[in-house]
Design goal:
The complex is a heterodimer of chains A (about 500) and B (about 100). By secondary structure, chain A is of the alpha/beta class. Chain A is built from 15 helices and eleven strands. Chain B has a domain of about 35 residues: Glu-tRNAGln amidotransferase C subunit, N-terminal domain (Histone, subunit A, Orthogonal Bundle). Chain B has a two-stranded antiparallel ribbon. Classes of the chains: A alpha/beta (about 500), B mainly alpha (about 100).
Chain lengths: ~500, ~100
């Protein structure tokens, strides 16, 4: 067998079942690769090699039992390594959220998504780097250092789930979990050339996800292909009594195999919103996305020009609502129940000093912004108005989905920017998110996948958005595209070919 | 220099509401940055929304009820393990009232 880190999920699943290699051997190969490449990539905050090998041994026992009795039901993820964004709890493993205020926090419970994947038998390699409390678009806001884009180490991997996207792109893990509040799965997937899903709000449990913007947060996943991400999705989706916002709807059983038909997307109506093809869109991003639209057309899809007229307002709406929710959610970090405490004489000083000292610059900025938007005298003008405009943005999507099945658009206006490229200019960094924010505000699902490269060799991504709970159509369309293209199979060259 | 939307006193008031101790250098930086951000956000005021209901959740509103029965929760020692100061099975805090 060649380099195991290059195998697809379906190759891993069948090789594990045939016993060509053990889950322990597979985990060790990924841990060795992480050991070699982490110094240049820094995709992880915490590695869990002992836990991973113990979980792999358990998976090997289950695989051995299955070989004796193949009538047992086992998951295609049994024995498969995954990386977990460091805002999701794994019981007994430090969870920092990229923040110094949680530098020593070890949760006593696991997130529901982690529990479901563990029940299927996955092997947790470690916790991946993230912007502090998932607030950022580059991982530069992590208190534990920036992650480097595997395609060009001087560029960011995107964010906030940049560590997870970089880990999958660099073949440090076949699959990874991320979270998407304003684009934090889709944008790093786009910047790193991997496939990433933001599910419908309410589709996947948030229990054990450290809250940022509670009306927007959703747990998603990364893999190399739509078929791989679909496997993770079917495991993590569904009602959870521990998250009252999850809906009790059937989760489709997605097994995406090779396309048998010549026009698998026959009569699929694809909306192309004019507001996403604007001045400021990098020429190569525009060209690659248009070429991908033509490819969808060749697969049978119909392209329909559409308008989402309130798109430009998504940025101010998001950057009022998310910080407002964050200012409430982050009130719990006060130096009392977890994390370090800055010494002070009275409790009020403990709060102020611990928070002032331990939160990073962007987190403090968003807490300030959200506190202002909610404060007496400004509530109606900022927060209240943002909530009303959010209704208009939702209405744009509802109107569009009356006429089309999916909406196709670029994920970001540019490819991955340079580390430090936005300096100390938060507004210019926020503008990176213009194309991902609307889906979060409307709660609709989005799937990002690679559709080309720019002149520097950095990946370009496209996203498909669907109506609420219509993830399946996104997966089917992206899968059909990936059957006739190979962008998702390209890998960055990170070390000399061992051959 | 352009007039800023926020005064230093307002920045201090917000920081006080948010229980954040800021240095003078941070106050100056946040005053400038938050002023620029809020100026950009003024475009929202141009939209007529007086007939538009606010969205606080994208989900249909409904009640999520469960049976009212006792269930085991997390163990106290596990929950106290991450705390900076613990005494007699409880979180220890500095004086609340002087």
């Amino acid at each position: 067998m060649g380099d195991l880190t290059q195998l697809s999920l379906s190759e891993i699943t069948s090789a594990l079942r045939r016993g060509e290699f053990s889950s322990r051997a597979l985990a060790q190969v990924f841990l060795d690769r992480i050991q070699r490449l982490e110094p240049s990539l820094h995709a992880f905050i915490t590695l869990t090699p002992d836990l991973a090998l113990a979980q792999a041994d358990e998976a090997d026992r289950r695989l051995a039992a299955w070989r004796k009795d193949p009538t047992q039901q086992i998951s295609p993820l049994l024995g498969v390594p995954v990386a977990v964004k460091d805002v999701l709890s794994v019981a007994g493993v430090r969870c920092t959220c990229g923040s110094r205020i949680l530098e020593n926090f070890t949760p006593p419970f696991s997130a529901t998504v982690v529990k479901r994947l563990r029940a299927a038998g996955v092997v947790v390699l470690g916790k991946t780097n993230t912007d502090e409390f998932a607030m950022g678009s580059s991982t530069e806001n992590s208190a534990y250092g920036v992650t480097h884009n595997p395609w060009n180490l001087e560029h960011v991997p995107g964010g906030s789930s940049g560590g997870s996207a970089a880990a999958v792109a660099a073949r440090l893990a076949p699959l990874a979990l991320g979270t998407d509040t304003g684009g934090s799965v889709r944008q790093p997937a786009s910047f790193c050339g991997v496939t990433g899903l933001k599910p419908t709000y309410g589709r996947v449990s948030r229990y054990g996800l450290v809250a940022y913007g509670s009306s927007l947060d959703v747990v998603g996943a990364f893999g190399r292909s739509a078929a791989e991400v679909a496997q993770v999705f079917t495991h993590i989706a569904g009602h959870d009594p521990l998250d009252a916002t999850t809906l009790d709807l059937p989760v489709p059983d997605l097994h995406l195999n090779g396309a048998a038909q010549s026009r698998p997307l026959d009569s699929l109506r694809v909306g192309v919103p004019r507001e996403y093809f604007i001045a400021g869109l990098q020429a190569k991003v525009d060209a690659a996305v248009r070429q991908a639209l033509s490819a969808l057309e060749a697969l049978g899809a119909e392209l329909h020009p559409i308008s989402l007229p309130h798109t430009a307002y998504a940025l101010p709406v998001y950057y009022l609502i998310a910080p407002a929710e964050a200012s409430a959610n982050l009130a719990r970090y006060d130096g009392i129940r977890y994390g370090p405490r800055q010494p002070a004489e009275n409790i009020s000083q403990v709060f102020r000093r611990t928070r002032g000292e331990r939160f990073g610059a962007e987190v403090k900025r968003r807490i300030m912004l959200g506190t202002y938007a909610l404060s007496a005298g400004y509530y109606d003008a900022y927060y209240g108005q943002a909530q009303k405009v959010r209704t208009l943005i939702r209405g744009d999507f509802e109107a569009a989905f009356a006429g089309v099945d999916v909406i196709a658009a670029p994920v970001a206006p540019t490819t991955a920017f340079k580390i430090g490229g936005h300096g100390d200019d938060p507004l210019s960094m926020y503008l990176e998110d213009v194309f991902t924010l609307p889906a979060n505000l409307a709660g609709v699902p989005g799937l990002a996948f690679p559709v080309g490269f720019d002149a520097l060799g950095l990946p370009v991504g496209m996203q498909l958005m669907g109506a609420h709970f219509q993830e399946e159509v996104l997966f089917r369309a992206a899968h059909a595209y990936q059957q006739v293209t190979d962008w998702h199979l390209r890998a960055p060259l990170l070390e000399p070919d061992p051959a | 220099m352009l007039a800023m939307t926020l005064t230093t006193a307002e920045v201090e008031h917000i920081a006080d509401l948010a229980r954040l101790e800021l240095s003078d250098e941070e106050k100056a930086r946040y005053r400038a940055q938050l002023s620029a951000i809020l100026d950009y956000f003024k475009q929202l005021q141009a939209l007529d929304t007086h007939d538009i209901p606010p969205t606080s959740s994208v989900l249909p509103s409904r009640s999520a009820l469960r049976a009212d029965e006792a269930r085991p929760g997390l163990a106290r020692p596990d929950l106290l393990r991450g705390a900076p100061q613990v005494e007699a099975g409880q979180f220890r805090v500095p004086p609340v009232l002087e």
